Amino acid sequence: MLTPSTLFLVANNAVLPFWLLLAFAPHHRVTRTLVHSMLGPAVFALLYLALLIAGPFADPPPPNSGSFFSLEGVQTIFENPWAALTAWVHYLAFDLFVGAWEVRDAKRHEVPHRYIVIPLFFTLMLGPVGLLLYLGVRRWSHGPIEAEP
């Protein structure tokens, strides 16, 4: 039987090739097929869904077992290793989605790829910090960011 620790290691290692493709071969056919097509993020989204269905949220929680309406309630939920793993896979899926978007957006706005490698690293490691760095790089290299139609 797979443990939360084993699945954590598998998920963490499985996401790295997608990030390496974004960093070192951002517009290669393989990257377009595996990452920009959203196949990679979809795989992690499916794993997330499977964990939701089969994991800690599958059965109704016992009374006073935590909630998403207070910090203490969230801490209680994440004491369960399956819940912590599910949350981690959520981060992996969304951060990969954002990283892929950054690469596509940079290409669309002619931001040289070398400028976004560091924001990509931070998107992998610190999600929103990497997005913020990318938006700063894009603004610096391309001018004001406007909403697209």
Describe this structure in words.
- By secondary structure, this protein is mainly α.
- It has one domain.
- It is 70% helix and 0% strand.
- It has helices at 4-24, 29-36, 39-54, 71-77, 81-108, 117-126, 128-142.
- It is globular, with a radius of gyration of 18 Å.
Summarize the structure.
This protein is mostly helical and 149 residues long.
Keywords:
149 residues; mainly alpha; 7 helices
Summarize the helices and strands and which ones pair or pack:
Blueprint: H1 4-24, H2 29-36, H3 39-54, H4 71-77, H5 81-108, H6 117-126, H7 128-142
Query: Quaternary state, please?
Result: single chain
Strand content: under 5%
Kindly report the average pLDDT value. Answer: 90
Total number of domains: 1
Q: How many strand segments?
A: 0
Question: What pattern of helices and strands is seen along the backbone?
Answer: HHHHHHH
Helical segment tally?
A: 7
- Unreliable sequence segments: none
Fraction of residues in H or I helices? over 70%
> What is the CA–CA distance across the termini?
49 Å
Radius of gyration: 18 Å
Overall 3D shape: globular
The chain-level structural class is: mainly alpha
Largest sheet: none
